[in-house]
Amino acid sequence: MEKSGAIEVTERTATPSSFPGSKESAEEKAEAPNVSVLDRPATPASIHVSEVSIEGRMEAAEVIVAGTVTPGSFQTSEISFVGKAETTDIIYYLKGWRLHFMSLSIALLFFLVNIEVAIVGTSLISITDDLHSFKQGGWVVTGYLITYTSMIIIWAKISDIIGRKQATLATTFIFMMFSAGCGLSQTMTQLIVNRVFQGIGAAGCVSLALTIAYEMVPKSQYPSIAAQLTTASALGSLAGPVIGGGVAEKATWRWVFLLNLPAGLVTIILLGLSVPAHFPYQGQPFYIAPTFRQKISKASLARLDLSGAVLLLGATLLLVTVLLEAPNEFSWHSKTAIVLFVLSGVLGLLFLLNERIVTSDNWRPEPIFPWRFLFNRVWIGTLILALLSAIPYNIIIIDIPQRLQTVNGISPLGAGIRLIPFNFMIALGCILINVFAMRTRISPIYLVLAGSIIQLVGLSLLSSLSSNDTMTSPPSVLYGWETLSGFGIGMVWGMLLVIPPHVVEPRDLAISSGALLQFRVFGGALGLALASAVMNSYLTEHLSHSIGAEYLAAVLQSTEAIKGFPVDVQRLVLEKFAEGYDLQMKVLAAFAGLQVLCVGLLWRGKGQGGQIRIVEVGQESPRQGGKDGAERRERRGFGGSLGEWVWKRFIELER
């Protein structure tokens, strides 16, 4: 028996007769006057308890029990007492080599997933020219992003069932295998199919990496870990264009995908060595790990919101399909386009209805997007900002290298190098904004607003590039405008990652991390689809009558065909390409303007607790960390992280 103030925590054994999962039975056996068990009906074999509240003589005491009760065991991941009772903190944080390796592992996962879009974007011209399908090139990126978008939260739920470590290893393996499939593809169709399945693996990699990051450090360290992960993402985007351009120019584009095999293998080894088998419940005395049979039981699998996943995937796929294929395969006003738009909208509404139903306590599945999210204005604003801020990022890292290669005649490697300022400033913006927020405690709403305005200015300037600089070096001001755009995006991303724990309920932390990434990735997919639609529509409208259907068909198959055109036709085609890219940047500037307006959704009045504040090291409650929490974790042999060590050294230097 453990004592904490006036409250005693007793470890008992639950039996079918003493604790069958009913409220009456729990009250009969409890010492406290009132015990309420809040959960769904239990089965004879197992009892899933989500919350036990003890009231009466224990004033404002709350016991949170997460786990499974079986006839011979009682599992709990956390017991905490609030109110007049002292907190019993049994959250164990790792330290030493395990935590260093875990930090490196999740950073590698973020790096590998984010390098994919950038590295493929730089190599896309070489890929489409080799496979003779320029007009389907958008699907190489968007097919990947569709499944990536739809599976993020599903992987988070799968990890709840089979465990964080097992799910992370599985998703990394899937990512590796289909990367190999992409590298061995002989047709554009084969490549797109493999990219779709590669996106499924990528979704799990980034979703579980962020979930693990939230669970391995206290809340006070979220800005630090957010800076690490966003830096890893930005470094992936920074290295991607250079690696992709170098590989496409010096070797074959297939190595763009095959390089994921050794990198993925290193990540799997690090994960296998560093992540405890029962993470994040390692070291907890009450936790009894479920067997593999229990993990894959019908009751466990019933927790997955498969209907929601299918509806979300269908709505996303149909919407992106019509945006990519119009006007190449059909016009915007055709029956096909209208049907696809309508079906996408219907599936989207059915998805919301499904989430409303499964959010009810009477339903077993755990929702992908809990209905209560819709009534949290600040959280909805965060998701909208995540979506809008991702649109310019994905378009820029794809379209600027394409423009430099197609319009300016620069090599793939040269195009990748010229994208470095943009990606470098994203990484710098992520780091500096988190350090600034921690030191000044300025509310994130003001920092997000500043980043959005800087982003708007940079994108507006990018849309003013001259369309008369074909086959010449791009103007030097390009780097300055990339710098502004990248720094603004980095500021916004850095702040959005630390907002969820401050605006959602603790039970929704894992779901919120997946939702944030899901909206961000969907924004990227939507942006690429819109950009492809804008470019294809512009080229079709302005070139079909100027150069003829034969020349236009050749351009849409491969940009290499432009080199074989007469000089006057080449000049006309390249000018229209440049104008099309400028139009894409103007569309991005419009989205950036909308983003500035949406920052207002983050505003919280005094009645709502005031503006969000970032918790500083040493000022958080004992349960979040701080001196007392750190001492308790140190006594247990856990605690600390590489990010925490770096941050403490930084604070010492500042002082």
UniProtKB/TrEMBL annotation:
<feature type="transmembrane region" description="Helical">
    <location>
        <begin position="192"/>
        <end position="213"/>
    </location>
</feature>
<feature type="transmembrane region" description="Helical">
    <location>
        <begin position="225"/>
        <end position="243"/>
    </location>
</feature>
<protein>
    <recommendedName>
        <fullName>Major facilitator superfamily (MFS) profile domain-containing protein</fullName>
    </recommendedName>
</protein>
<feature type="compositionally biased region" description="Basic and acidic residues">
    <location>
        <begin position="1"/>
        <end position="11"/>
    </location>
</feature>
<feature type="transmembrane region" description="Helical">
    <location>
        <begin position="137"/>
        <end position="155"/>
    </location>
</feature>
<keyword id="KW-0812">Transmembrane</keyword>
<feature type="transmembrane region" description="Helical">
    <location>
        <begin position="300"/>
        <end position="324"/>
    </location>
</feature>
<feature type="transmembrane region" description="Helical">
    <location>
        <begin position="445"/>
        <end position="466"/>
    </location>
</feature>
<dbReference type="Pfam" id="PF07690">
    <property type="entry name" value="MFS_1"/>
</dbReference>
<feature type="transmembrane region" description="Helical">
    <location>
        <begin position="255"/>
        <end position="279"/>
    </location>
</feature>
<keyword id="KW-1133">Transmembrane helix</keyword>
<feature type="transmembrane region" description="Helical">
    <location>
        <begin position="336"/>
        <end position="353"/>
    </location>
</feature>
<feature type="region of interest" description="Disordered">
    <location>
        <begin position="1"/>
        <end position="37"/>
    </location>
</feature>
<keyword id="KW-0472">Membrane</keyword>
<feature type="transmembrane region" description="Helical">
    <location>
        <begin position="519"/>
        <end position="539"/>
    </location>
</feature>
<dbReference type="GO" id="GO:0022857">
    <property type="term" value="F:transmembrane transporter activity"/>
</dbReference>
<dbReference type="InterPro" id="IPR036259">
    <property type="entry name" value="MFS_trans_sf"/>
</dbReference>
<feature type="transmembrane region" description="Helical">
    <location>
        <begin position="583"/>
        <end position="603"/>
    </location>
</feature>
<feature type="domain" description="Major facilitator superfamily (MFS) profile">
    <location>
        <begin position="102"/>
        <end position="560"/>
    </location>
</feature>
<feature type="transmembrane region" description="Helical">
    <location>
        <begin position="478"/>
        <end position="499"/>
    </location>
</feature>
<feature type="transmembrane region" description="Helical">
    <location>
        <begin position="416"/>
        <end position="438"/>
    </location>
</feature>
<feature type="transmembrane region" description="Helical">
    <location>
        <begin position="167"/>
        <end position="186"/>
    </location>
</feature>
<feature type="transmembrane region" description="Helical">
    <location>
        <begin position="374"/>
        <end position="396"/>
    </location>
</feature>
<dbReference type="InterPro" id="IPR020846">
    <property type="entry name" value="MFS_dom"/>
</dbReference>
<dbReference type="GO" id="GO:0005886">
    <property type="term" value="C:plasma membrane"/>
</dbReference>
<feature type="transmembrane region" description="Helical">
    <location>
        <begin position="101"/>
        <end position="125"/>
    </location>
</feature>
<dbReference type="InterPro" id="IPR011701">
    <property type="entry name" value="MFS"/>
</dbReference>
